[in-house]
Predict the structure.
Amino acid sequence: MPRTIHVLNGPNLNLLGQRQPEVYGRETLADVEAACAALGRELGVEVLLRQSNHEGQLIDWIHEARGAAAGIVINPAAFTHTSVALLDALNTFEGPVIEVHISNVHKREAFRHHSYVSLRADGVIAGCGTEGYLLALRRVASLTRG
Ligand code: DHK
């Protein structure tokens, strides 16, 4: 059975491609999902991509990943900078976690420089655009290869 990698996306990422394209680019989340699925086929993994604007929903999905996902790629969006609850949820997950930010958060406002999720993440990718998701998938696949 192929390993499944869960790709979780936080608030406002449903508007990817429309929202501040000068910061987040013109690709939509559907484009990201298609690119992740194509790479998944190449790597021999399944990819489940989800997005929610609600913190509790993201936490429920992290709990669902326990014992089910080989790894988690997560762009927590604004919850990166605010959510101890997401950090606590990720701390219950046993596999690798890679944190992705489309923009280079360190080049932006000071409040974006701190990440609660980074206290758990095994790797962090920022400022590589939506390609960051593909880099993160490759990393999870290599970390979990048997
Ligand atoms: C996305 C967001 O929505 C912001 O709140 C983060 C992140 C950065 C990104 O670059 O993907 O600060």
